[in-house]
Design a protein that fits this description.
heterodimer, A: mainly beta, 4-stranded antiparallel beta sheet, 0% helix, 49% strand, B: mainly beta, globular
Chain lengths: 115, 111
C-alpha cells in the first residue's frame, strides 16, 4: 500500500538559489494539491491539479513559485530565487475527484530551510 | 475568505482525562475533516463528516458536525500518551478544491 510520497524530505539552501520538490500521489488519485505550513500554523493552500490541468492557484503563490504535473501523475513545485520567508514545510496531498467529499491524503512533507 | 478557528490552541492533560477540541467558522462547509499531525510528518486523516448533526466515533474519539455545518468538535475519552499530537480541522468546499485549515490544537497527554 503506497501513500503519497515526497522527495526530498529535507532541503537546506542559500538565499537566492532555486529548489525543486517532487510529489508522487496515490496511484489512482487524479487530484493533487500543494500546501505550505509554517511553525505553529495549519497548512495553507497553494495550488491544485486535476489530472495535468492546474485548476486553482492561491495568491500565496508568487511569481517565483511554479508547479507542474505534466503527465497527470507526479508533480513538481519549483521555487526560484529563494528567500528566508520561504522556509516552511511543503506538503503534497492527493484525492479522488468523484464522491470523496474532498478527502485529501497527505505526504510526509518537504522541510525547506533557506539560510 | 473562509476561516476556521480552533480552541484551545494548547492543551496539556494527564493520562485518563477527557478533553474536547472545538473548530468554529462563520462559513458553511460541504465537508469537514479532522487530521492529526506529528512533528516532521504530514497530517493523517482521522475522519470526514459531511451531514449537519452527524456524529462519528473512532475508538475513543468522537467527532461531531454542527447542525448548520459551520462548526465541529472532537472529544477524546480517557486520553493516552499516544494521543499526543497536533489536531487540525479542515473545511472542504463544494468545488472539491482547497481545504481551509484551522491553526490546530497541540495536545500533550502526560503519563
Amino acid at each position: 500500500d503506497t501513500g503519497v510520497s515526497q522527495d526530498p524530505r529535507h532541503k537546506i539552501t542559500k538565499r537566492g538559489q532555486n529548489v525543486t520538490f517532487r510529489c508522487d500521489p496515490i496511484s489512482e488519485h487524479n487530484r493533487l494539491y500543494w500546501y505550505r505550513q509554517t511553525l505553529g500554523q495549519g497548512p495553507e493552500f497553494l495550488t491544485y491539479f486535476q489530472n495535468e490541468a492546474q485548476l486553482e492557484k492561491s495568491r500565496l503563490l508568487s511569481d517565483r513559485f511554479s508547479a507542474e504535473r505534466p503527465k497527470g501523475s507526479f508533480s513538481t513545485l519549483e521555487i526560484q530565487r529563494t528567500e528566508q520567508g520561504d522556509s516552511a514545510m511543503y506538503l503534497c496531498a492527493s484525492s479522488l475527484a468523484a464522491g470523496s467529499y474532498n478527502e485529501q491524503f497527505f505526504g510526509p512533507g518537504t522541510r525547506l530551510t533557506v539560510l | 475568505t473562509q476561516l476556521l478557528e480552533q480552541s484551545p490552541q494548547f492543551l496539556s492533560i494527564q493520562e485518563g482525562e477527557n478533553l474536547t477540541v472545538y473548530c468554529n467558522s462563520s462559513s458553511v462547509f460541504s465537508s469537514l475533516q479532522w487530521y492529526r499531525q506529528e512533528p516532521g510528518e504530514g497530517p493523517v486523516l482521522l475522519v470526514t463528516v459531511v451531514t449537519g448533526g452527524e456524529v462519528k466515533k473512532l475508538k475513543r474519539l468522537t467527532f461531531q458536525f454542527g447542525d448548520a455545518r459551520k462548526d465541529s468538535s472532537l472529544h477524546i475519552t480517557a486520553a493516552q500518551p499516544g494521543d499526543t499530537g497536533l489536531y487540525l480541522c479542515a473545511g472542504g468546499e463544494t468545488s472539491g478544491s482547497r481545504l481551509t485549515f484551522g491553526e490546530g490544537t497541540q495536545l500533550t497527554v502526560n503519563p
